[in-house]
# Entry
Amino acid sequence: MNLGQRFAGKSVIVTGGASGIGRATVLRLSAEGARVLAVDLDEKGLSALQAEHPGLSVRAGSVADEATAQSVVAQWVEQAGGLDVLVNMAGIIRSGHAAAMSYDAFMSCVTVNLGSTFLMCREALPHLERTGGNIVNAASTSSHFGHPFLTGYAASKGAVAAYTQSLAWEYLKRGVRVNAVAPGGIETPLAKSVQTGMVEDADWELYGHLSPINGFASPDKIAGVIAMLASEDGGHMNGAIVRIDGGVHA
# Structure
């Protein structure tokens, strides 16, 4: 693919950057000229990513931790000279019967999926105001449609969608756009963890409307949409939750 240089001279942070959609986004924005910091808990994944692409910067740590989120943004802004784009792709899934799910399992989804998004946005916003930058968050089709046995995940992603829209409106006159992608079935390690971790007696018929007719999408398909939203091509998009599911919920 012959890509343009829409992000030439731009500074970007991508969380969840070691695998899946995050990794694909790191590579896509880098290929379009961005200076990218990939952040993830997976140190081995980050090392492999940097070994394959030596020009990338990486940082290991949990952005659901307040001190880590603060240092990630502050240190990168000092190193890169500013921040133009924040892409929040860090996330986890916990599956199981709603009546049997532990409080800790439910809240882990909220802490990682919503909490890390909040922390990174909070730390990045003052810098994005200075550059007229933007944010792309990770919602999900579960933000607006029923996903059985994934209630904690769905609740956290619904909250991410609501947070995105409210933040976009709050910063409407302050020069910062905030959007989110809402992927459906994607070929990622996170999606595979649902299949392997699903309760044995789950009624798979309830998942009939969630299965893409054309199969699951590759992460690079989502990265392409993220690149559009984060670039000037998406300059008139704000507070959008962009559904990418192959038409499953059309």
Summary: The domain at 11-244 is CATH 3.40.50.720 (Rossmann fold). The longest strand covers residues 177-183.
